[in-house]
Amino acid sequence: MSQADTLFPQLDSDLLRSFLAVASAGSVSGGAARLLRTQSAVSLQVQKLEEIVAQQLFDRHGRGVSLTTHGEQLLPIARQVVETLDQAVIAMRRPDGNGEIRFGMPEEYSDTLLPAILAGFAQEQPRARILLRCGSSVQFPAALAAGELDIALHTPENMEAGDIVVHREGAIWVGSAFHDVENRRPLPVALFERACWWRERCLDLLQKSGVDYEVVCTCESVAGIRAAISAGLAVGVLPQGALTNSVRQLSGTILPQLENTALVLTRSAAAPARLADNLVSIVKRTVQALDGSA
What pLDDT sits at residue 94? Predict the structure, then answer.
């Protein structure tokens, strides 16, 4: 042991993982959800890390946290350390043989569910490869039927026999956290441009409600729709799990009530059994854990 080891406290990789999760989520609660831990536990880890480096890493404010100058300095170091450790484990546990599974999921969950799912899969199946497709739920039934995917996590218009419901979530009207758009007439609306049942249902409900509206923005991605809403360009519909600090749920308006949607797992009959069983278990466990932290 060197003299430096006795002079300086040692950094734990768990502390760096908590730091990265909070920095990425922009809040302690969001970081805790990604790590599948309690908010208090992650908060304590961040405090311990700040004590070890003797610097404040986050500025706390009403909507969450942001990195300080010292936090920005630590960020690339933490990423490199954690990635190096993860790659070392994978390399040591992968002597030979490669399994492969193709997994599709909606892009709106890429910042919430996906990191925990991939982390769980990498830990439990270090020899396997996962080929990931993030996109629109409307694309996945055809991809499964064509043999392009083994498992899809999606929100279908109609469920099929064998589909596993892992979560039910409300679709909600949202507006910018910084602008009052919902009182404009005609009401500016942002919708997905792809032909999907969700878009058609929103248009149908708007027409039946008698609201004077105008579609002012269309986009293929959830990120694009969310950006238009947060900028104050329009209101729109998002799943509850896709909300960020820049958008807010609209309440007390004359906008039509939206239905809950079912997030389901659909599995191809040709999916590799062992990997598919394991991935289904990981997805269900991850969703349940995030539901419990909400």
Answer: 55
